[in-house]
Amino acid sequence: MNPNQTKIDNLTSAIRNIPDFPKPGIQFKDITPVLADPQLFADALELLTNDFKQGEIDYFVGVEARGFIFSAAAALKLGAGFIPVRKPGKLPYDTYEESYDLEYGSNSVCIHTDAIRPGSRVVLMDDLLATGGTAAATAALIRKFDAEIVQVTFLIELAFLKGREKLQGLPVRSLITF
Amino acid sequence: MNPNQTKIDNLTSAIRNIPDFPKPGIQFKDITPVLADPQLFADALELLTNDFKQGEIDYFVGVEARGFIFSAAAALKLGAGFIPVRKPGKLPYDTYEESYDLEYGSNSVCIHTDAIRPGSRVVLMDDLLATGGTAAATAALIRKFDAEIVQVTFLIELAFLKGREKLQGLPVRSLITF
Description:
Shape of chain A: globular
Low-confidence stretches of chain A: none
Largest interface: A-B, 40 and 40 residues
Strand content of chain A: 25-35%
Number of strands of chain A: 9
Structural class of chain A: alpha/beta
Strand order of the largest sheet of chain A: 4-3-7-8-9
Radius of gyration of chain A: 16 Å
CATH architecture of chain A: 3-Layer(aba) Sandwich
Oligomer: homodimer
CATH topology of chain A: Rossmann fold
Number of domains of chain A: 1
Number of helices of chain A: 5
């Protein structure tokens, strides 16, 4: 078995399934056992970034709160900057805002208007691709800067939620699919 | 001038002051220009972790959301695990909870009950020491595990808010004091 597949299998085994969280019927994928284990955490970061060379990416963009974890660590590892995308009212400077639909109602994500230099190469990294609403809205925020979205990278993809359909035209990669 | 002082001066210059955020009279210290710059971000992580040797720390603990950024990157850099502390209702498994007083009312922070092995060496890292309430409550969560808090490390300390007084008995370090 190739070493990357062994690492992916170890990561998959460590992810904890929590039934009925945050509401009945949802099987929540708890990544905290991966984060807490130095080897698994390092393996996850290595696999999440192994498509990119040192210095090749200008920014890793992460969405609060869990999305900050992998994207900030990836930025440090690859010699890139880190850009936070946050809920409305959290970023202190001028922001762009994008809304996306939920089952009931809608949410928004924001980015500072001076966050990204035009022409930059950007990776959007998050732990989970579910319905894709957050990622699609974040990609729309990044596009306002005339930047290239090199990859949209996820540790986990819940394929039955068809989040990829909302990210058409973007290079989407996930390590682990449920 | 010693090279560390030069780095600290560069970080200090990059922090952006936002008046009247999140409410009138508050001078918010915006660290996003530090995060976005690969050299400043790497310098900040180097300085925040230079008291520790590779592998010497078992866990870096970070409080959502901004606290995840430096603590997750530090965990990867030092070969440690990362432990998230979150607001109530966000962590999916069983949690311990600690409350702390605000000017009006109170807030709580939570940690998974299986987050930390007894006897571990732990660093609590955050971007900002303000009134110290969150850090003190997080330290109380860590103590439930019979773990050693090796350091409580901040990028920025707002000394006039006297947050250190809430962290007595803990080894507190901050890089930049306003």
